[in-house]
Amino acid sequence: MSKAIRLAVLSSLLIIVTSLSGALAVRAQQSTLVIGFSQEPPNLFPLNNLAYGGLLENFYVRNLWEFDVENTAYPVMATEIPSEENGRVVFTEDGDTAVTVTLREGMLWSDGTPITAADCEVWHTIRSDSSTSASVNRAAYPSAVSSFEIDAEDPLTFTITYNGLFPDYVGANERAECQYPGHIFGPMIEDGGVLEDNDYFLGGADFDGLKTVGYGPYAMESWDIGSVATFVRNPFWDGPEPAWDRVVVPFIAESAQMRNALQQGEIDVAFNWGDDQFDNYASIADVEVFNVPSVFADALWIRSGELGNSDNHGGDALMDVSVRQAIAHAIDRINLAEELVAPGIPVPPAWYPSQFWPDDLVFLEYNPDGARALLDEAGWVETGAPLIDGGDGVRAKDGVELSNLRLVSTQDELRNNYQIFIQDYLAEIGIGVDVQIIPATTLFASFVDGGTLTNYEWDLAVFAYSVNPLTPVGIPTAFGCEGVPTTDNPDGFNPWQFCDPEYDEIDRLLANTLPGPEREELTHEAVRLHTDFAFWNGLRTRVTWYAVYDTVVNPESVAANVGALSSNWFAMIELWEPAG
């Protein structure tokens, strides 16, 4: 180990030990649960697109309804889930969909302010108007929602109306929401103000977490960037009383350090680690290991548009679908899952959940000869001895070399192993790859925050992007032409630049088509178009693993009360039980 690397490792360990020592000191005075997070968001929701941003929010925020392990909705802030059967969903004479929601009486924000439909209206305004924030993930909300009206006789009731038929009013990204306090967020956007101008969302030495207002079992107490976040019981919470006085969340990016922290008893829960780590965690005394279904699948993403192209990184080669298909064919993804993860780990052919796949969906199998043929036909020819043998045989076309493709990923042991093997596989067909490991906060940051992906400082990437198993409708900000990030569209998150007008139109129709044969046919066509573009190539299907000290926490209560969606794994933490 070089001196520089040794010093970096020692420095990282010192930070973790320091943060955990504070957590351990608190244990002696209060009942404390310590949960290790492998990623730290750059700011609080809703100003980031990171799953871990949503997970951090789980402790102090709840919504109108949440989803359990079976992806079944249950009411939290709302009195009931709206439906046609209970009369709260009506299809109007104009063909629109009106959804009425009533809040429960007596709810208070964590600063003691009453919760009313006016709070929901402020969040509706922010979701409808992109000028209020360049970072909020709006999906298709601005175009899908036509109106929001508070009942004149009941300040706890509002009606949200969707343009046309909108069958996914419970599960879509555009569903009604009310998780943010209007009396805090409203003044931020008055007179042209934007959310990003407020230090409310930023941690650090001067951060007063208790001013971070929410409706949940805990309130945020502090957030030391790069170290730890702490949460204390919310005195105004009217739901089930949580078992612990305090939740401490240390940020531990390195996989080995996370395992060591659990083994040493410095944390009580580690989660979302790779399948390949099962034996390491299962061997720790008094630790129970289990998993729940996940909405994530790691994939190899390929930047496919004109933005970010450079002769130093293969020029416009990746805009050619044949080149993207060649890259997929060159990698033995099934064998990698078997060897790097575990035998039998499936490699998905599509980003969409399996219930939406058509029977004729094509998987780009390992075929290096076919990959070479595709590159030859596209004009990218080998120029010397193979790269994998130490030669300089990188492919080239019109004087541009297919080299220095930036293969980026997060600080994750398994993903980093994937990067090395992908580099070798592509070298075998004459494509040169530069492996880069980047902190998640930088990799996934928004356009305005200088994100690696959104600013096109990459060519290939290994990571997961969650799906929504509740609906076949895609994510326009991630897969629609409207989502490509630019200076004029900074809140988009489609840096792979998948832009297909036919796909956009089908996705629009899906959002306005009731369940039945027509919707199924549209779903299958959307999946085919998305997959045929070859910008997303599955590497492994994931479950969410948990390792829990059964001397601190009842593992059965955890397994029964973790969500299975992208950002709600701790949305039922108030139901977790201490060890018997």
Instruction: Label the structural class.
Output: alpha+beta
CATH C-level label of the largest domain: Alpha Beta
Please tell me what the overall shape is: globular
Question: How does CATH name the architecture of the largest domain?
Answer: Roll
Helical region count?
Answer: 16
Number of domains: 3
Low-pLDDT segments, ≥5 res: 1-19
Number of strands: 19
Cα(first) to Cα(last) distance is: 45 Å
Please report which band the strand proportion falls in: under 5%, 5-15%, 15-25%, 25-35%, 35-45% or over 45%. Answer: 15-25%
Helix content: 25-40%
Characterise this structure.
With 580 residues, the chain is α+β, with helices and mostly antiparallel strands. It folds into three domains: 3-61 and 216-294 and 543-575, D-Maltodextrin-Binding Protein, domain 2; 69-190, Dipeptide-binding Protein, Domain 1 (Dipeptide-binding Protein, domain 1, Alpha-Beta Complex); 296-541, Dipeptide-binding Protein, Domain 3 (Dipeptide-binding Protein, domain 3), CATH 3.10.105. The protein is 27% helix and 18% strand. Strands 8-9-10-1-11-19-12-18-16-17 form a ten-stranded mixed β-sheet, with helices on both faces. The longest helix has 25 residues, at 3-27. The model is unreliable at 1-19 (pLDDT under 50).
What is this structure's SSE topology?
Elements: H1 3-27, E1 32-36, H2 51-57, E2 65-67, E3 73-75, E4 89-91, E5 97-102, H3 117-128, H4 141-144, E6 145-150, E7 157-162, H5 182-189, E8 218-224, E9 228-233, E10 246-250, H6 255-263, E11 269-271, H7 278-282, E12 287-302, H8 321-330, H9 333-341, H10 368-377, E13 381-382, E14 395-397, E15 400-401, E16 405-409, H11 413-427, E17 433-437, H12 440-443, E18 460-464, H13 476-479, H14 501-510, H15 517-532, E19 536-549, H16 555-560
Parallel strand pairs: 1-10, 1-11, 16-17, 16-18
Antiparallel strand pairs: 2-3, 4-5, 5-7, 6-7, 8-9, 9-10, 11-19, 12-18, 12-19, 13-14, 14-15
